[in-house]
Write a structure and sequence with these properties.
Length: 240
Amino acid sequence: MKVFAENALELLPAYFILAEANIGMGGSRLKKAEQFLMAAKWNLLKFKDDKSEEKSRVGDDSLVSAQEIEQYQALLNRTFGKLFMAQNRIEAFDELTQGIYKDSLKYGPESIQLSSSYFHMGQLFLSQERFVEAKSFYLKICEIWKRYVLEEAQTMESDETTGLLIDEAWKHLHEILAFLERLRDDNTTATADCLFALSLVTFSTGRKEDALDEMTRCYEIYSQKLGDYAKKTKEVEETI
């Protein structure tokens, strides 16, 4: 604040980190998280309303690019969505939806960048016992990560952000697998779809033995439910 002033866009990353940390602690810290997000929202709104300031500040000397501003707007929606979920407020749905829409425009709806938002949307539906909608979002995550590891990861340059997304996906896919197993039983094609995606992500984290166990279980389900010569069964067999 001393360097950039209280309403500077350069403060937004710190506001988001502090908000996420307080959301993670929960309880009485949720109010503090909301204060940080309101500060971030105010800085963005003030910047958008002041066109002359926009022209002067987003230039060669600014630390914040126009592209980063768009990312901040999507991140603001996503983080408010997480906060409202923790507070059991109905506004969570609108905030997450807006965040997903903005990220889809930037990355495309099938990008791994959308995976976390899809998971939180699934969690929101799950909290409302809307299992069909929750399952749809969860299986979309499985599709995204299966395609990424098998098709895109080989041609895309990996970085620290990608590594964090993979670690987060590994945790989310474990939760999705547990949900699918509770929903019906542990021997459905949907469970196998999740197992396949999880095994690929597990392999990407270096847990090769665990990945093989998960993929073998996936193969057994596909073989039993779809047959040995089904497309999905053969795909897993070739991947093993």
